[in-house]
Fold:
Amino acid sequence: MNRRKFISQSTMGAGAMLLLPEFLKADGRAKVKHPIGFQTYPIRDMVTRDFAGTMKTMAGMGYQYTEMCYPAGYDDFKPLASVKASDLKKMIEDAGLKCPSCHFGMNNLKNNFGDCIEFAHALGMTQVVTPGLETPGKTIDDFKKACGELNAIAAKAKSEGLATGLHNHEGEFKMLDGELIYDAILGALDAGLVKMQFQTEVIKLGYKGSDYFKKYPGRFISAHLSDWTADKKQVPVGQGVIDWKEFFAAAKTGGVKNFFVEMNFDTYKDSASYIHGLLG
Structure:
């Protein structure tokens, strides 16, 4: 899809999808004490089909910012790769949102660093986050080597005025060579250069974000929020087993700057309502 056609369709879809709430009509910014965000990956079909409309829909549900996935590096976001970053930024801002963060694959950061940073600056980001180390991961030394590569990338990002984060999945919460992979990663990363993005989904494995925020104070930059029942079914934030009051209190110790809900679309509205009710 070419840029002009995409923007035209997004603009038309925006009005049809949503009547803007009053707080957005006022000045384009939500008046909330604790802004919250959403990750675009679970709603990638909506995002690529009608970017502007989806941003306004999410804003109407109570979100103040978004986290992107780098279009040139993700096949699922390829339809956005031909859209100018400045146009994406305008559509985000027109919805009353900001975009402080984006996921960039390690290969993109290693091989196309300049393009990644140009995209980050064009959208006004402050953080670049990689969703994984992209290592064979057969030994702890494999992970430590990959951490060294990320440290080097983060040093370059810092010189560009950007903070670097590393996102976890369930795989990092396994034992390898007698050590929990996640702890080994934290030990190998330069605490002054790379912060962690904690994914709460690992509650399914028995690991709590609050425990890690306390264990590694100041080592986190953001978190992906999802909630789960005792039998591992996804539910809106506040309806599962996670103690969110404890989580958000400990997140201050962890250094978390941004919270991105990352779940199925039908959970987003109730999750935002719960979080704003809890935090204000």
